[in-house]
């Protein structure tokens, strides 16, 4: 959403690194989309892990955030223990946990993130369970439940800043909006202070409580967003006519955090949960929501819980902008 926020892209420097190298193209070039449809590999994860400290989680390129910082309320924590793996309906899923008692010291957020930035054009898909009500405690907090892809930013109006918010769901509203409301936002760039975001944005003023599948197709000049197979947004440029397609590599992430603490009721602690069933990415390939579901079912039929066949050579190589 094009709203003021504290945007600090926090990553572990030792574990976040782009896996790709330079190719000759102009900054902002998006013409490589779908050049080799279906041949550049896929990333799939069914999140069959024991805990946030499971060595396989790191080996497969994920971690649970533990650093302080934004977005959200200053001074709140992001403990890795707020990411767990639980069983629901006979299926193992990732679970994010966020808690608040209405004070910054008493507030925690959660984030599960990809530790390698090598995702750009293609199709992103994920099945996520949002909750309109807390698992325990009073309701009403201004909470953001999300799935997104993002790259780093180095300075205000960074010309290659890239972010695609597949879904930002506010069950109780926030940022001056009444909930429940969901946003898809495609970014060109932004300035932190005073806040100025150059984006394309769509919204749906309805509940997304429960399980839903979010698919985002990126390429050929468009970022198209789907919820449960229905097209809900089609973005091409920001308000100034600049492309919103990614201009650098990104990682795929989910987080659960408090926008502010103004709406908390009383002093009792509220606990909220968000769950992620699976994640799928097809590089440089336009995959329909039905095809994404079918591919995930095929993985599960063959007991494939994780696969990374992404290619970054030849026609599949991601253009890397020069240092700036």
TrEMBL record:
GO terms for biological process: carbohydrate metabolic process. Transmembrane segments: none annotated. Residues 1-25 form the signal peptide. Keywords: Hydrolase, Signal. InterPro entries: Beta-glucanase-like (IPR000757), ConA-like_dom_sf (IPR013320). One of its GO terms (molecular function) is hydrolase activity, hydrolyzing O-glycosyl compounds. Residues 47-287 form the GH16 domain. This is Glycoside hydrolase family 16 protein. It comes from Kribbella qitaiheensis.
């Amino acid at each position: 959403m094009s709203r003021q926020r504290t945007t600090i892209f926090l990553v572990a420097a030792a574990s976040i690194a782009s896996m790709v190298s330079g190719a000759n193209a102009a900054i902002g070039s998006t013409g490589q989309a779908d050049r080799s449809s279906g041949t550049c590999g896929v990333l799939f994860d069914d999140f069959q892990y024991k805990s946030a400290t499971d060595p396989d989680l790191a080996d497969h390129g994920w971690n649970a955030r533990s650093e302080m910082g934004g977005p959200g309320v200053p001074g709140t924590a992001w403990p890795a223990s707020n990411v767990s793996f639980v069983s629901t309906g006979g299926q193992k899923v990732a679970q994010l946990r966020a808690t608040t008692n209405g004070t910054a010291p008493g507030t925690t957020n959660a984030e599960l993130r990809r530790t390698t930035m090598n995702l750009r054009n293609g199709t992103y898909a994920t099945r996520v369970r949002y909750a309109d009500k807390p698992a325990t405690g009073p309701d009403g907090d201004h909470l953001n439940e999300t799935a997104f892809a993002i790259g780093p930013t180095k300075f205000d109006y960074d010309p290659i800043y890239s972010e695609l918010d597949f879904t930002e769901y506010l069950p109780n509203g926030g940022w001056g909006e009444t909930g429940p409301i969901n946003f898809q936002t495609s970014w060109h760039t932004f300035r932190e202070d005073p806040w100025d975001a150059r984006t394309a944005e769509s919204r749906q003023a309805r509940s997304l409580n429960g399980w839903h599948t979010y698919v985002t197709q990126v390429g050929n000049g468009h970022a198209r967003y789907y919820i449960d197979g229905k097209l809900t947004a089609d973005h091409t440029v920001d308000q100034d006519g600049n492309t919103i397609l990614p201009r650098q590599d990104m990682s795929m992430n989910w987080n659960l955090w408090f926008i502010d603490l103004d709406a908390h009721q009383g002093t009792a602690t509220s606990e909220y949960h968000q769950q992620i069933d699976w994640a799928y990415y097809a590089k440089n390939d336009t995959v329909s929501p039905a095809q994404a579901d079918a591919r995930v079912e095929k993985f599960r039929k063959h007991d494939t819980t994780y696969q990374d066949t992404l290619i970054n050579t030849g026609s599949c190589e991601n253009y890397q902008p020069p240092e700036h």
